[in-house]
Structure formats: C-alpha cells, structure tokens
Design a protein that fits this description.
The chain is mostly helical. It has one domain. Helix content is 79%, strand content 0%. The protein contains 2 helices and no strands. The radius of gyration is 24 Å and the shape is rod-shaped. The N and C termini lie far apart (68 Å). The relative contact order is 0.05.
Length: 70
C-alpha cells in the first residue's frame, strides 16, 4: 500500500524541479555550444595550412591577449 503523506510535498516539489530543469537546460546548452565552437576553432586553426612559426606566433598572441603572459 502506498503511503500518501508524501504526496503534498511531491505535488509542490515536482513542478518546481521541472520548471528549473526547463529554465536552465537551454542556458547550459548555449554555454556548452560556445565551448565546443571555441575548441573547434582552435583545433581548425592549428590544423590549417599555416607554417609552424605562424602557429606559434598565433598562440603567443592568444596567450598575451588572455593575460597568461607574466
């Protein structure tokens, strides 16, 4: 036999959980999509037909722009 004491709590919690999931899934998808695009851009830049010195210079410029250069 099912105990019915948890049903009021479930009737309040379940719609809120579903609402949170529906609200945040598109946001997380956009963040994930941006990360994948940026990684793909970096990989395609490195695989392109540039010479090795151009690749090194490009990476050095990216590092300086991101402030990782000390």
């Amino acid at each position: 036999m099912i105990e019915y004491s948890f049903l009021p709590i479930l009737s309040i919690a379940l719609p809120n959980v579903i609402t949170i999931i529906v609200a945040f899934v598109p946001i997380f998808f956009k963040i994930w999509e941006r990360k994948v695009k940026s990684i793909n851009n970096i990989i395609s830049d490195l695989i392109s037909q540039e010479s090795n010195t151009d690749k090194v210079n490009t990476l050095a410029i990216l590092i300086k722009k991101n402030g990782a250069d000390t």
